[in-house]
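Duplicate of #3305? Posting structure anyway:
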């Protein structure tokens, strides 16, 4: 299930497995599939493999659900332990200086929608078509921004990491590529780690010399009044083939001792990173600074800067990172 920014739920409702029913009146439901049990669509209806969960219409394999073009068949049943899904975005500059999207393919819970934008840039919103990631899921998103193109990617709601039925961990991999003269703004909503969940998130950004990147990550440990699940995250940023940043953080039950101590999170429930890569920083790099009580700006070994922030909740974290971004841009 997804929730809007700043709405972390009350954590009081147990996870239940809904009975699978048909969304088409008068038609029987297909046989239940074990790998999608317990999942619901964005509209709160049970999800059925092979059926659209966003528009209520049957989805035919080979028919596009996002951009009117054939998309790859969803590999929802590839593993009995969970869903395997891969979404792809490719942005290119046309001869008129506008950004077009020759590839916009979603799969499984990863639905991609082109949304209205002003100016030459393109804007894509990631919509959660079904609950996820659940334990055992393997999700991946690739975004490739070609020379001269400008792309902004956000999400419609927070992502909630939920426990699966067999205790397996989930994976969520994000791979970003930015060419010379291109710009990518990767600004998803928060990731919330729910009690009993286990998730490994990796984000890798490769920026060519002359490329621009704004990347935001926000992680919230548990819903209101709830202990977090196990969350392992790794963020890697490379520029012109050189590594600028490679950091890992593990939080929650089973994490190395001290993750919630004064040297790491100091009892805060929300942690965020903001990476800004701009060619101009090669000539005038931002200076190190302490931003309030629990945030810091650190110049990286290249034309980039990192803001790291802690906060008691998601709303306060967003305010800190927004203020820091306006300071750098």
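Output from current build:
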């Amino acid at each position: 299930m997804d929730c809007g920014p700043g709405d972390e739920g009350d954590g009081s409702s147990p996870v239940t497995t809904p009975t699978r029913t048909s969304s088409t009146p008068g038609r029987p439901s297909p046989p239940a599939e074990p790998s999608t049990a317990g999942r619901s669509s964005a509209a709160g209806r049970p999800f059925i493999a092979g059926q659209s969960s966003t528009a209520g219409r049957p989805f035919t394999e080979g028919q596009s659900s996002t951009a009117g073009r054939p998309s790859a068949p969803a590999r929802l049943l590839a593993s009995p332990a969970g869903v395997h899904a891969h979404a792809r975005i490719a942005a290119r500059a046309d001869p008129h200086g506008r950004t077009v999207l020759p590839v916009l393919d979603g799969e499984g819970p990863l639905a991609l929608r082109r949304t209205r934008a002003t100016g030459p840039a393109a804007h894509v919103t990631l919509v959660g078509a079904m609950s996820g990631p659940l334990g055992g899921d393997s999700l991946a998103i690739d975004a490739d921004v070609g020379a001269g193109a400008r792309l902004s990617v956000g999400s419609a709601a927070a992502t909630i990491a939920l426990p699966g039925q067999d205790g397996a961990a989930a994976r969520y991999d994000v791979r970003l590529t930015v060419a010379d003269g291109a710009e990518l703004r990767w600004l998803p909503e928060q990731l919330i780690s729910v009690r009993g969940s286990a998730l490994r998130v990796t984000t890798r950004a490769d920026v060519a010399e002359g490329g621009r990147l704004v990347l935001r990550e926000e992680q919230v440990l548990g819903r209101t009044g709830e202990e977090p699940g196990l969350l392992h995250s790794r963020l890697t940023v490379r520029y012109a083939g050189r590594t600028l940043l490679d950091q890992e953080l593990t939080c929650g039950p089973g994490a190395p001792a001290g993750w919630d101590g004064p040297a790491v999170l100091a009892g805060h429930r929300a942690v965020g990173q903001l990476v800004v890569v701009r060619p101009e920083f090669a000539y005038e790099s931002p200076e190190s600074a302490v931003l309030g009580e629990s945030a810091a700006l650190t110049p990286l070994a290249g034309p980039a800067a990192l803001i790291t922030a802690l906060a008691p909740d998601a709303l306060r974290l967003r305010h800190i990172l927004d203020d820091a971004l306006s300071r750098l841009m």
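Confirmed duplicate; merging threads. Confidence is low (pLDDT under 50) at residues 1-79. The chain has one helix and 18 strands.
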